[in-house]
Design a protein that fits this description.
This protein is mainly α. It contains 12 helices and no strands.
């Protein structure tokens, strides 16, 4: 029986005291919107009265109108589609690399000595310093943009998955030896389920880093995408377009994080402490 199946058996406990007791009080969620709305109102007032010059930061009403215009003429949907495609391709490549290297490093001392020093050195490299090399190696097409995102994504997944693997209870490994599980069965039924909570933390971090890396990646001779739209607006001092692009980045980051949180809730229902949140 895997760790996940053991957790499911615990969750099936019919006793009343086995049910989570912590619940959010209804009717209070609107209070979280007070401070953001107050900030936007103060921003609008400062812009309308001239306290905040529009050349430094456009008013919220101007930004909203610009967003409608960009969406109406197709500029914003096209930019979102291009950037999303780059993020998904880079994330897929980085996730495979990060998880694979974490398994190699986490399952043995020899693998750790071979993989971990290189990953720690690469993790310290600045992205802007890698751009010239990536252009020389991969040209100025989509490859360097995707690879920069993949490189950024791989580190959080590697670090968290490695920590999760090393944090698996050693008694479970003894149980696997007693049951004479093969290496593949050990990884499938014990290592991966045990490391799953930490892996999902790394997944959330990686998705956030992916959008940050995309801004850097789209400096590489981009002709489309959110990063290109922001850079082009910077040349013409269009702060309204810049803010629209940044807000879209934020919204996409929140959306992808919400997807991972949903996955987290479904995958970790066997954890009582997780359900009690």
């Amino acid at each position: 029986m895997s760790v996940l199946e053991l957790g499911t058996a615990v969750r099936a406990d019919p006793r009343p005291d086995a049910r989570p007791q912590h619940r959010r009080l209804p009717g209070r969620s609107w209070q979280r919107w007070i401070s953001p709305l107050a900030l936007v109102a103060a921003w609008q007032i400062a812009s309308s009265t001239g306290l905040l010059p529009t050349r430094l930061l456009a008013a919220p009403s101007t930004i909203a109108a610009t967003a409608v215009d960009l969406a109406g003429d197709g500029t914003l949907p096209t930019a979102i589609a291009v950037s999303l495609q780059r993020v998904l391709a880079g994330f897929a490549a980085g996730a495979v690399a990060g998880l694979g290297l974490a398994l190699v490093a986490g399952l043995g001392r020899a693998g750790e000595n071979a993989v971990d020093p290189i990953m720690q050195m690469l993790r310290a490299l600045p992205f802007f310093g890698l751009i010239p090399l990536f252009i020389l190696w991969f040209g100025i097409g989509e490859a360097p943009k995707v690879l920069l995102v993949a490189l950024a994504v791989s580190f959080p997944l590697y670090l968290n998955t490695f920590a999760g693997i090393r944090g698996v209870d050693g008694k479970l490994a003894e149980l696997a030896r007693t049951l004479k599980l093969t290496r593949a069965q050990l990884i499938r039924h014990i290592v991966l389920p045990g490391a799953l909570p930490q892996m999902l933390v790394g997944l959330r971090q990686s998705l956030g880093v992916a959008w940050l890396a995309l801004i850097v990646a789209e400096q590489v001779n981009a002709s489309a995408g959110l990063g290109y739209m922001i850079n082009d607006a910077r040349e013409f001092l269009r702060t309204d377009v810049i803010v629209v692009g940044l807000l879209v980045y934020s919204a996409l980051g929140l959306l992808t994080d919400a997807v991972v949180r949903l996955l987290e809730r479904r995958a970790l229902t066997w954890r009582r402490d997780f359900l009690a949140r």
